[in-house]
Amino acid sequence: MKMNAKFISSYDDYQKCPEITKPEYAFIGRSNVGKSSLINSLTGVKNLAMTSSKPGKTQLINLFTIEETWILADLPGYGFAKASQSSRIKWGRMVHDYLKNRTNLTTVFLLVDSRHEPMKSDLEQITWLASNGIPFSLIFTKIDKQSLTQTNKILASWTKVLSENWEELPKMFLTSSESGKGTEELLTYIDEINKQIAN
């Protein structure tokens, strides 16, 4: 289903982002985790978010309005981006400043590649979000690239690692940008939160 999704603008500082009262959902993950592809699949709008086979394509805070009811924030990835260390530090600071200070931020969706065991950089992001009291959920991407058995194996590994420090695990979604699997569940979750906020 094609949604009414429109690009607002890109920003290199959260303070330059427009003041918006609508609930905002941020998407973040390692470089090349499939973030832009998932956003396009989620909204049904091809090339809404620019995709690239090269890690580090997204370098700014990109805001989109969805159905004129909520805001989607596409944030720079972390990890393998082919950029100088100073640039990566700058991006990291920009993202963390946004996440800590964006007043209408409702939830962060942290994307992880379903083909990989828990990685240090992902776990560090989870720890940082939790320590700063920022609500988040996990989205496992690219489940179409492997068997269901392998996906379940990776999911079990994540559950085991997170259970070592968490009594209640974050909500998890299994998705595929190719088939669209999981996008309906994700949109339903966002819609439920929006209704709770409205009430």
SSE topology:
Elements: E1 5-11, E2 24-29, H1 35-43, E3 61-66, E4 70-74, H2 85-101, E5 105-113, H3 120-131, E6 136-141, H4 148-163, E7 172-174, H5 183-198
Parallel strand pairs: 2-4, 2-5, 5-6, 6-7
Antiparallel strand pairs: 1-3, 3-4
Domain EngB-type G: 21-196
GO biological process, one term: division septum assembly
Protein name: Probable GTP-binding protein EngB
Low-confidence stretches: 52-56
The CATH class is identified as Alpha Beta
The N- to C-terminal Cα distance equals: 26 Å
Strand order of the largest sheet: 1-3-4-2-5-6-7
Order of helices and strands: EEHEEHEHEHEH
- CATH fold annotation: Rossmann fold
Looking at the overall shape, the CATH architecture is: 3-Layer(aba) Sandwich
Notable traits:
single chain; 199 residues; alpha/beta; seven-stranded mixed beta sheet; 35% helix; 21% strand; septation; GTP-binding; GTP-bd
Notes on the structure:
The chain is an alpha/beta fold. The protein has one domain (5-189): Rossmann fold (3-Layer(aba) Sandwich), CATH 3.40.50. 35% of the residues lie in helices and 21% in strands. The chain contains five helices and seven strands. A seven-stranded mixed sheet has the order 1-3-4-2-5-6-7, with helices on both faces. A hairpin with a 3-residue loop joins strand 3 and strand 4 (70-74). The longest helix has 17 residues, at 85-101. The two termini are 26 Å apart. The model is unreliable at 52-56 (pLDDT under 50).
